[in-house]
Write a structure and sequence with these properties.
Elements lengths: L5 H12 L1 H15 L5 E6 L6 H4 L7 E6 L15 H13 L3 E7 L3 H7 L11 H6 L3 H8 L6 H20 L3 H8 L4 E7 L6 E4 L6 E3 L4
């Protein structure tokens, strides 16, 4: 009996027979010299919105953090376990990334759960509910709007959550100090799974503008 699902074994064989030989020099260099990505991506763990695929990134190009709803919590040095904050700290302080991109996406299950007042916890721990409560005030406001359709409310909160995470990034001293010095830039993006379109947040207005293809 294989120790991994067969489709993963097949994918690995394809990788070793195709992509790895083509990029073996790059992998050896990364192993020898370590990683030095210039960009960190904070994305949702949804299997349909993989940053490496969307940005056609090679090995070592992106430092990717994925969690439910692509959320960044506020800076809270309280001695508890903070995986998102730990990844952020490593990216900024150790890797010294120059860009942080918070990338949300359409049809996000976490956002849908935040909007659903009848959402039933999936387990007694209700980890999803607790995590998505980070954007509870915005979710309540959006959910109460009767002038938008369900789809419009979903998209609105997906984009609001990106702005929320960027605001929370600035509560981290290491981020705010470096951004103030011009050594770190924060970005927002929203990916439409159904069309492949990428919408980028305008830093001045906060509006999301569709990235035009050349």
């Amino acid at each position: 009996m294989p120790h991994l699902p067969e489709h993963l074994l097949t994918g690995y064989r394809n990788f070793m027979n195709g992509r790895y030989p083509a990029e073996s020099g790059r992998y050896r260099s990364l192993a020898r010299e370590g990683q030095a990505p210039e960009t960190m991506i904070v994305a949702c763990c949804d299997s349909r919105s993989a940053p490496e695929a969307i940005f056609d990134a090679g090995p070592g190009e992106l430092f990717v953090l994925r969690n439910v709803g692509n959320l960044v919590p506020p800076f809270e040095p309280d001695g508890e376990y903070h995986s998102t904050s730990a990844a952020l700290e490593f990216a900024v302080q150790s890797l010294k990334v120059k860009n942080i991109v918070v990338m949300g996406h359409g049809r996000c299950g976490g956002i849908r759960a935040a909007l659903d007042t009848n959402f039933a916890p999936l387990s007694p721990g209700d980890f999803i509910g607790k995590w998505m409560s980070l954007i509870a005030p915005a979710a309540e406001t959006v959910a109460a709007s009767t002038f938008m359709t369900a789809t419009e409310r979903q998209t609105a909160l997906e984009r609001i959550s990106i702005r929320y995470s960027i605001a929370n990034l600035r509560t981290f001293p290491c981020v705010s100090i470096l951004e103030g010095k011009g050594r770190l830039t924060l970005h927002g993006a929203w990916f439409d799974i159904s069309t492949g379109e990428l919408w980028v947040m305008n830093k001045e207005t906060g509006d999301f503008e569709r990235l035009e293809m050349d």
